[in-house]
Amino acid sequence: MLMEAAMERHRDTLRVFAYRMLGSLLEAERLVEQVFSLASSQSRSYDARESTSALLYGATVRICLDVLATQPRRTLPALNYPPTESSEQPAAPKDTSSWLEPFPDELYTEFMHESAAGYEAREIISLPFIAALQCIPPRERAIFIFCDTMDWHPDQVADVVKISNSEVGNLLDRARGIMVQQYRAEAGRREPPAQPKATALLMRYLHAWERANLDELMSRLTHEVTLQMPPSSSWYHGTDAVRRYLVSHAFNGEAQGRWRLLPRRANGQFALGTYELDDTGLEYVAHSIQVLTFEEDLVSEIISFGNRMLFPPFTLRSRVIAQGRMLP
What we know:
Elements: H1 2-8, H2 11-22, H3 25-40, H4 49-68, H5 77-80, H6 127-133, H7 138-149, H8 154-161, H9 165-182, H10 185-188, H11 197-210, H12 214-218, E1 221-228, E2 235-237, H13 239-248, E3 259-266, E4 269-277, E5 283-295, E6 298-305, E7 319-321
Parallel strand pairs: 1-6
Antiparallel strand pairs: 1-2, 3-4, 4-5, 5-6, 5-7
């Protein structure tokens, strides 16, 4: 019981560590369960907090490195592909293992923490930061996460990763150099609007979407807005391209009442669980998790993660009852 209680205290931080390593919430959840199962099977008892931490993080690093050795680097469409022409159909979905996933703010307990390296809590869970981490080779990535987001001393890292102190320093220098090249701090430090205005802005966007009021929705977007839709590699840039996509797809035909959106938060930003009305008209079915980035009062980026497996971690059901269509 003592071992299980000690392990449980590390669950949240292990999940975040694994998410930063893998870029996947669902993989991180599975990996933490695997680590706990492995640690529970150990014959020795680890009573000291430090020993428990070393055991759990050592196992987490090893499993992360094994996973990363066999899967592609996770990314976002706009980081790897040119924008899709407004007249083109979206590309067919690719394997979900190719794409980053959002992370619920409710599972992230570090918003009051600021690391010694100068990264604020919101920044080190932001999608731009997570995307840049994926550009670092896996072992160097682990060292960077320990030292520059968790503020671990190199001696601690060397003990967990089972390498020398000098090697920790060399790998950390290499990782920091890659982050300088790959990471735009101004993107990672974007914050949602402050309350009480924030709720009103989000609700205006939500209501415009649910009513399929295209003109109202477009008035809530910046001129240079981007719309990404993993697992499709297609993405659209600018209001003209986004409007054309919405007219042809999300809002085609009789779209009023087709969508229902439930507010959440992800990666330090506003998010929405998006549901689509089924053929019976009686239920809304899980469709995607939208993560929004605001630029002052307007939305500058929409990333719509089309993976229904993401709904449970965001405390969202797979289906919700339709209680009548929205009125005009």
